[in-house]
Predict the structure.
Amino acid sequence: MANVIKLHKGLDIHLQGRAEEKLIQLKSNGKYALVPDDFEGVTPKVVVKEGEKVKAGDALFVNKQYPEVKFASPVSGTVREVVRGERRKVLCIKVDADEKQEFVDFGKKDVSSLNGEQVINALLEAGIFGYINQLPYAVSTNPSVQPKAIFVSALRDKPLAADFEYEVKGQEADFQTGIAALSKIAKTYVGVGVNSQLSTVNCENVEVNVFDGKCPAGNVGVQVNHIDPVNKGEVVWTIGDPTVVLFIGRLFNTGKVNLTRRVALCGSEVTSPAYVDMLVGEELSTLLSNSYDASKSVRIINGNVLTGKPTTKEGFLGAHSSEITVIPEGNDADEMLGWILPRFKQFSVNRSYFSWLCGKKQYALDARIKGGERHIIMSGEYDKVLPMDIYGEYLIKAIIAGDIDRQEALGIYEVSPEDFALAEFVDSSKLELQRIVREGLNVLRKENA
């Protein structure tokens, strides 16, 4: 029987444009790219040359700090270009896919006969170990450090988030194999939602917990905080993107690297929100060509509206992106009389608009911030949407002040930037909280190196 953990803080934002559970078929244009910035904390070292032939599963780059951590090509084909930015920073490695795909054969493996070290070596060899993150610091993990536990969140509850229950249908065996493989490394905790079919996952050394509450109950950091918090000197491995478990399961069941994921094309500007199967790194132009009114000013987001990154049609599907979201930019909005109007079509957390009378109405929100950055207002806003045992406002102030001792005392080792995504949404001060937390974590990681 799974444990049920009830969360009382949080906020569900109901937006228009949720993807219907129907799968649309797309023909890829054959352009792919792996983006090192999708893997937080990784300094890439490119191991291929332009014009070189690669198979699906061959390494495109490695982590300079830990060269054994490779990052596999999602397709077989020809390396078209290594794109670099300022100071020769690697922005992406582009690959033109072959008509007929070839895979590196890593060999099928029976997980039950493997130990933790063998599982880690198999993931390193296949170039998918880097998809596993860690706390503290919320970065791609280090294979040489033994974690005290592994946490997997199979609950997606951010606005317009893709339904993992829909994605995993027909792939239950791969999910079970992936969880079994992880449980060989350390005690594994799987977080699921209420009435989830995945609560029946049955493996030795695995504990399933049901999280009953509003967003961000699906954040893996929130789940760690409620089950086994991270103290200074401890490390836990985290998988907040449950599709990574499918990647791992497919590797052991087939012996091949298959980075296919089911992506929700969603948002109020999308004509027919639906799902599509895409490979990590696939160019978005095919998906977005006729999906919205090109005459309108829109914001295309690689990921969800709270934590995703702005992109364009020429962008590539992020390594951890389960949604491509299209919402109004808002730069052409004309609101006569502004705040004087009752605003039934605008969403407000604190009942500033009359829309709070409309219950669970769905809104078509745009990308405007609606205000400039200002001094922090100690209002307790963060605490209302942050279901973690930390003082969010005081932690943010300590990060801004650069007070490392106070950051440690206030629990910075337990948080990741996405945990503050909702706090950033409700923040009256209009601060970029996720950026502030990321910078704080980076400084702390450098100090403790």
